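Appendix B, Record 12. Input sequence as logged:
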Amino acid sequence: MKKSVLVAVLVITCSLFMLQTGFAGVEWTLKKQLDIEASPRDIVLTPDGQWMIALVKGKVLIYSTVDNKIISRIPVDAAFDKLSYSVADNTLLVASRSGRAVKIIQLEKVYTFSLADLPFKGLEDAPVTVAIFSDYQ
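Logged structural output:
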């Protein structure tokens, strides 16, 4: 009796290990398609999803994923073939394996807004600088 119970437990245990695990499928939806003006050598997406940065021969293209258009072109040597983006200081690293060079490019967001029909003091076309203190305590 004990031997048959032991054999039954052993058979059940072995059959549990032999069961195949099920693999889950993946559902996907095309979120957006951006047409790039040249064949990309490398592509990075900023963590906030606002910019897609593509390295093509001779330039870096910065696309606005919100507006679906190129917002900036940065000329680089045609030998550059690798991109990396640093979130910490909003820096783009462009590297060339064959030329053994790295360019470090600081990116800054530029905001435009209309001042039409707003009251002003001083010259109408005077330059304005807005300073943002992110470490204010």
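The longest strand covers residues 69-75.
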